[in-house]
């Protein structure tokens, strides 16, 4: 709601735009889609309460993710970002919904589509963009790139398909061992869901009752192969067999949040692991080297964008329930764009790490040691 006030300054009449929030709805209840259940008596509620503050926060975070990925796309095409680069646009409701259902003291590990989670786990846009361009100010000091980013309680993007799942079970084992009532969220894609190591991990996690939420982000395609062509059973939420599971609308941030809350409660109460399948969609190809339209049509992508875009869905809910004004959301968009532009500027001007840094941080707390350099005659120092 905008109220224009006319103020007289030094004889000149200036129209100042003043905003009052008193007329906004502080919170509203929304109907959400029913989850499909496996070995569970009860699913998440069919209604979710959203406060105005939460809505604005989710909106800002999802917009930041979206804009950051679009900027990464641009920098990649300019050859400023090189190597592997897997973008997350379209899947923002998954990351934001999961984080809203757990605590920052809980742990999270994912595959290589990791930029969004690096942001929700405490990384800054500036650090993420600088890591993508391989600069010193990057979150892994420019040595990890797109697939290898880490923060506290976030064990990275992992480049090997499915390899993060057993690692996540190890983190969950540590949570149980230390008795801090923490859990580990362990993410993988539909392409990794057929990996043998995932089933071995299910078995161990179930036997040891580990506080682990296994989450399959099913974006319908593993690289260029549709789920129907890759999996004899596309009911990924049932794949844990003896592990309870639920299939969730991964395009609705509230749906994901409520399902994650239920899963977290399951883990914290000592019942062992639980499996979630988030049905989502990526707008870009598998990676930047994949145009993304050779195995699916532009119309298909456009239809998802127009009917179930996670950001548009949240925006429509807030506007139609008078929880925010169009101007206010536009203001957030402008701020986000500026943040992304500033980060891109930093990521293209910050220096690359010097060669002397190449072998640093290999070990956590060892005394400095000599490491063979790029040929047998050069020596580099490794400092923890």
Q: Can I get a quick summary?
A:
The protein is of the alpha/beta class and 384 residues long. It has eleven helices and 14 strands. InterPro entries: DH_E1 (IPR001017), PDH_E1_Alpha_Subunit (IPR050642), Pyrv_DH_E1_asu_subgrp-y (IPR017597), THDP-binding (IPR029061).
State the main characteristics:
disordered N terminus, two-stranded antiparallel ribbon, 11 helices, 384 residues, alpha/beta, 6-stranded mixed beta sheet, Rossmann fold, single chain, 2 domains
Tell me about this structure.
With 384 residues, the chain is of the alpha/beta class. The protein folds into 2 domains: 327 residues, Rossmann fold (3-Layer(aba) Sandwich), CATH 3.40.50; 29 residues, no CATH class. It contains 11 helices and 14 strands. The strands form 5 sheets. The protein has a 6-stranded mixed β-sheet, sandwiched between helices. Helix 1 runs antiparallel to helix 10 and helix 1 packs parallel to helix 11. The longest helix has 26 residues. It starts with a strand and ends with a strand. Keywords: Carbohydrate metabolism, Glucose metabolism, Magnesium, Metal-binding, Mitochondrion, Oxidoreductase, Phosphoprotein, Pyruvate, Thiamine pyrophosphate, Transit peptide. It is an enzyme of class 1 (oxidoreductase). One of its GO terms (biological process) is glucose metabolic process.
């Amino acid at each position: 709601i905008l109220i224009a006030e006319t103020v007289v300054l030094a004889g000149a009449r200036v129209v100042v735009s003043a905003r009052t929030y008193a007329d906004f709805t502080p919170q509203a209840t929304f109907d959400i889609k029913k989850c499909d259940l496996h070995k569970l008596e009860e699913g998440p509620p069919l209604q979710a309460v959203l406060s105005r503050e939460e809505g604005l926060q989710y909106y800002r975070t999802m917009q930041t993710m979206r804009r950051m990925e679009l900027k990464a796309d641009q920098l990649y095409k300019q050859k400023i970002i090189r190597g592997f680069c897997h973008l997350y646009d379209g899947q923002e409701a998954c990351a934001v919904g999961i984080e809203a259902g757990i605590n920052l003291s809980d742990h999270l590990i994912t595959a290589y589509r990791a930029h969004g989670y690096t942001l929700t786990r405490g990384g800054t846009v500036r650090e993420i963009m600088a890591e993508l361009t391989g600069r010193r100010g990057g979150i892994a000091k420019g040595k990890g790139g797109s697939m290898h980013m880490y923060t506290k309680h976030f064990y990275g993007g992992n480049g090997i398909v499915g390899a993060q799942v057993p690692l996540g079970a190890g983190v969950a084992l540590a949570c149980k061992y230390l008795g801090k009532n923490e859990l580990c969220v362990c993410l993988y894609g539909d392409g990794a869901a057929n990996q043998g190591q995932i089933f071995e991990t299910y078995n161990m996690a179930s036997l040891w009752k580990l506080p682990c939420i296994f989450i399959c982000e099913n974006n319908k395609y593993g690289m260029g192969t549709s789920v129907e062509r890759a999996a004899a059973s596309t009911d990924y939420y049932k794949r844990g067999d003896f592990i309870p599971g639920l299939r969730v609308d991964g395009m609705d941030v509230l749906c994901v949040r409520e399902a994650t809350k239920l899963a977290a409660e399951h883990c914290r109460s000592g019942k062992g692991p639980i499996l979630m399948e988030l049905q989502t969609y990526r707008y870009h190809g598998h990676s930047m080297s994949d145009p993304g339209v050779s195995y699916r049509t532009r119309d298909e992508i456009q239809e998802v964008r127009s009917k179930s875009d996670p950001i548009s869905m949240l925006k429509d809910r807030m506007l139609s329930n008078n929880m925010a004004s169009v101007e206010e959301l536009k203001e957030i968009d402008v701020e986000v764009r500026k943040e992304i532009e500033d980060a891109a500027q930093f990521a293209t001007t910050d220096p690359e790490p010097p060669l002397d840094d190449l072998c640093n941080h290999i070990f956590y707390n060892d005394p400095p040691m000599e490491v063979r350099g790029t040929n047998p005659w050069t020596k580099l120092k490794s400092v923890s």
